[in-house]
Specification:
- The complex is a heterodimer.
- By secondary structure, chain A is α/β, with parallel strands linked by helices.
- Chain A folds into three domains: 111 residues, Phosphohistidine domain (Glucose Oxidase, domain 1), CATH 3.50.30; 104 residues, Enzyme I, Chain A, domain 2; 286 residues, TIM Barrel.
- Helix content of chain A is 45%, strand content 15%.
- Chain A is elongated, with a radius of gyration of 30 Å.
- Chain A starts with a strand and ends with a helix.
- In chain B, helix 1 runs antiparallel to helix 3.
- By secondary structure, chain B is an alpha+beta fold.
- Chain B has a single domain, classed as HPr-like (Histidine-containing Protein, Chain: A), CATH 3.30.1340.10.
- In chain B, strand 2 and strand 3 form a beta hairpin.
- Classes of the chains: A alpha/beta, B alpha+beta.
- The interface between A and B is medium-sized, with 20 and 19 residues.
Chain lengths: 540, 87
């Protein structure tokens, strides 16, 4: 039994036999001459080019079925192969008496070398493609086709130094259990493929190729990036149990993730998703989200030099709304400051950023910025069910001011005949103790509450939540917190309104029963936590 | 005929635009070359074009020699102006 560690990718555990996808390059002497007749060598070359062309075309067609974009590289490969200037150069060398393989190898290698020396990484990368084509052509001349992953002899864990798109294009998807490679990380081609196939992989397992032989029994555990080679009986049994559990769990969750989260007593909790960019919406829908409880809009504002335009924002909001087809999407207005900074807003440096001008406090000072966002949200509201949520509300005056601006924007839209949802709901994040303590008053100014437990914990215990030394005070389930949460829920229920929760606590399996007991109406969490949360609630 | 262009698409003449140049050039009988910083390559050779390493903002000269040279140039103009249909 041996062990090797790398970076775990995708998820799960795989147990299976190894299939080594490693081959040594034939040693090529680029100066080799032979005495074959030129015409004969030319004929062999042309035939090999045709054969290689057919091979690449098959790869192209196979890949295209999956992804048009991924397939494009093979069109480039075809052009590389049939490049008339390159073919002329090869033929010239052949005519001078060099062997066909020497001529092919020398010509392509020269081109690859030029590309590799370029500074621009994009061009540099193409050297790999040139070598790939050259190798394919040489193998075709030698009648030694490139080993293929297209039909694995048994369900196998593929072990390789590295895998390129050309290696995996014809992958036998039914028989691959996992990948282990010596190079690469979380963003490598193999990692992305593993995610897409939903199978585990370990990348960067240095030395694995020399440690493993074909048909070795391997255990691949994504969680700690571990590969166990030829495990002993106990270990094997252990992991088999683990897999069984995971499978059982998965099946169970698969069954219930699109069902409603209803307790045995018949109380229904709405389970929605926290999303941070438009693409997350697809994942959320797939995991069974019944809406979006928190759409963070900061992604639109970060990593750029000017604020996003109304059009850009509108498009982003509309995209998400359309994906949720009429289900509620809570859009939180800009929550910047604290640990998130935007240089182009030129905000004053804060001595205590978490206690400074942030979130709604910025928006009420930068009315133009706020108006553009509200306008785009309102315009998008014509395409689905939007709810607006203001972050970091401490006192009722802030809600009044924000609502006043919202009214102005609505008026402008009415005057210019631009459609929007006239009954749009407005709520606030309850994440400052003052607003929880005063929830009975605040509820008259809003349609709903959503408790942000991350900040509420930070402000309740007076700890900077990014300060690791204070972890011991980060206690979202402390009685002090539970009281604030309860006050908020009760205040809303008294007025027939609802309270949701969108902090990390909302997706915490330990907290969910407690929250449901306290009367929470909606829980919003990162999409991957949704199936589990539904299961917990359905068992309550 | 000869004409100078400034390449405006994001990543310059990478594989896809280079392929489009080759495909366009192949439609014509004329000898067509692409030149950058005094280095001249056959426009029908994708590896030649890539070897120029043309990035965004670079100037290239396209030259066409032959009966259908004018028509070919007209197509190249469209292709480059359209940023190879990229954005």
């Amino acid at each position: 039994m041996k062990n090797i560690h790398g970076i775990g990718v995708s998820n799960g555990i795989a147990i299976g036999k190894s299939y080594l996808y490693v081959f040594k390059d034939a040693h090529i002497n680029v100066n080799k001459k032979d005495s074959l007749v030129y015409e004969e060598k030319k004929r062999i070359l042309e035939k090999a080019i045709k054969k290689t062309e057919a091979e690449i075309k098959i790869l192209y067609e196979k890949t295209k079925k999956r992804s048009k974009k991924e397939a494009e590289i093979f069109q480039a490969h075809l052009l590389f192969l049939k490049d008339p200037v390159t073919i002329e150069e090869i033929k010239k060398l052949i005519e001078q008496g060099f062997s066909i393989i020497a001529s092919v190898s020398k010509t392509f290698e020269e081109k690859a070398d030029v590309m590799e020396k370029m500074e621009n990484t994009y061009f540099k990368e193409r050297a790999k493609d040139i070598r790939d084509v050259s190798e394919r052509l040489i193998r075709s001349i030698l009648h030694k086709p490139k080993p293929s992953l297209s039909s694995l002899p048994f369900p196998a864990i593929v072990v390789a130094r590295d895998l390129t798109p050309s290696d995996t294009a014809s992958l036998d998807r039914n028989n691959v259990l996992g990948f282990i490679t010596e190079v690469g990380g979380k963003t490598s081609h193999t990692a992305i493929l593993a995610e897409a196939l939903g199978i585990p992989a370990v990348m960067g397992a240095e030395g694995i190729v020399d440690m493993v032989k074909d048909n070795n029994v391997l255990i691949l555990d994504e969680k700690d990036g571990q590969v166990i080679i030829e495990p002993d009986e106990d270990t094997l049994k252990n992991y088999k149990e683990k897999i069984k559990e995971i499978e059982k769990e998965k099946k169970e969750l698969e069954k219930i993730k699109y069902l409603d989260a209803v307790t045995k007593e018949g109380k229904r909790i709405e389970i929605s998703a926290n999303i941070g960019k438009t693409e997350d919406a697809d994942i959320a829908v797939k995991e069974g989200a019944e809406g979006v409880g928190l759409f963070r809009t900061e992604f639109l504002f970060l990593g750029r030099v000017t604020p996003p335009t109304e059009e850009e924002q509108f498009e982003a909001y509309k995209t998400v709304l359309e994906k949720f087809k009429g289900k509620s999407v809570v859009i939180r207005t800009l929550d910047i400051g604290g640990d998130k900074q935007i240089p182009y807003l030129n905000l004053d440096k804060e001595l205590n950023p978490f206690l400074g001008v942030r979130a709604i406090r910025i928006c009420l000072r930068r009315k133009e910025l706020f108006k553009v966002q509200l306008r785009s949200i309102l315009r998008a509201s014509a395409y689905g069910k939007v709810r607006i949520m203001y972050p970091m509300i401490a006192v009722k005056e802030e809600i009044e001011q924000a609502n006043e601006i919202l009214e102005q924007v609505k008026q402008e839209l009415i005057e210019t005949n631009i459609p929007f949802d006239k009954n749009i709901e407005v709520g606030i994040m309850v994440e400052i103790p003052s607003s929880a303590l005063n929830a009975t008053e605040l509820i008259d100014y809003v349609d709903f509450f959503s408790i942000g437990t991350n900040d509420l914990t930070q402000y309740t215990f007076a700890i900077d939540r990014t300060n690791q030394n204070l972890n011991y005070l980060y206690k979202p389930l402390h009685p002090a917190m539970l009281r604030l949460i309860k006050m908020t829920i009760d205040a809303s229920h008294k007025k027939g309104k609802r309270t949701g929760m969108c902090g990390e606590l909302a997706g915490d399996p330990e907290a969910i029963p407690k929250l449901v007991e306290m009367g929470i109406d909606e829980l919003s969490m990162s999409p991957s936590k949704i199936p589990e949360a539904k299961k917990i609630i359905r068992n309550l | 005929m000869k004409k100078e262009f400034v390449i405006q698409n994001k990543v310059g003449l990478h594989a896809r635009p280079a392929a489009l140049i080759v495909q366009t050039a192949n439609k014509f009988k004329s000898d067509i070359t692409v030149e950058k910083d005094g280095e001249k390559v056959n426009a029908k050779s994708i590896l030649g074009i890539l070897s120029l390493g043309v990035e965004k903002g670079a100037r290239i000269v396209i030259e066409t020699k032959g009966e259908d040279g004018k028509k070919a140039m007209y197509e190249f103009e469209g292709l480059i102006e359209d940023k190879f249909g990229e954005e």
